Amino acid sequence: MKKILLVASHGGHLSELRALKKAWEGCDVRWASYPSPNSKEIDYSVKHIGMNPFKMLTSFFVFFKIIYTFRPDYVISTGSEIAIPAMFWAKLFSSKTLYIECSARVSSASLAGKLLYRWVDTFWVQWPHNTKSFGDKAEYHGGTL
Q1: What are the Cα distances from residue 13, in Å, to 6, 79, 94, 103?
Q2: Which of 47, 102, 104, 53 lies closest to 77 in space, CA to CA?
Q3: Going by DSSP bridges, is the β-strand pair 122-125/96-100 parallel, antiparallel, or unpaired?
Q4: Which helix (H) or strand (E) segment is 65 a member of?
Q5: Which of 49, 93, 103, 138 has a CB 3.0–4.6 Å from the CB of 126, allowing a cystine?
Q6: Is the pTM of this model over 0.90?
Q7: How would you classify the pairing of strands 74-79 and 96-100?
Q8: Selection from 145, 103, 142, 95 nearest residue 119 by Cα
Q9: Percent of the chain with pLDDT over 90
Q10: What is the pLDDT of residues 39-53, one digit of tens each?
Q11: How many CA atoms lie within 13 A of 90 on its CB side?
């Protein structure tokens, strides 16, 4: 059985991952996100990072423990900054990685997307013109999400 770690900040990013629920049916799935009253399925609660460099550094230690313990085959994220430490450790532990740029990013690329574009195995955008914002690796899958 494939092990999948789903990582997203609360709100819209988490909602976009929830919408893809059928994609991982039959898999051992764990969720990592920020604490929120409407995120009961969260297995790993991570303190909100925001733009705080100290919190980002701390989250690298948190995700090291999560990925070392769970050993996912795949790590999938819709962002935002919470994806950065998750994808870093996923790659170092040889998990396959997929980053899905949030559908709200209509006219510009997210900072997390820009930072992770070259690092992740697969990179999806949800608007066809956003493939030009990133490059050849970006795949348009907006109509299928």
Answers
A1: 11, 6, 24, 9
A2: 102
A3: parallel
A4: helix 53-70
A5: 103
A6: yes
A7: parallel
A8: 95
A9: 65
A10: 778 999 999 999 999
A11: 27
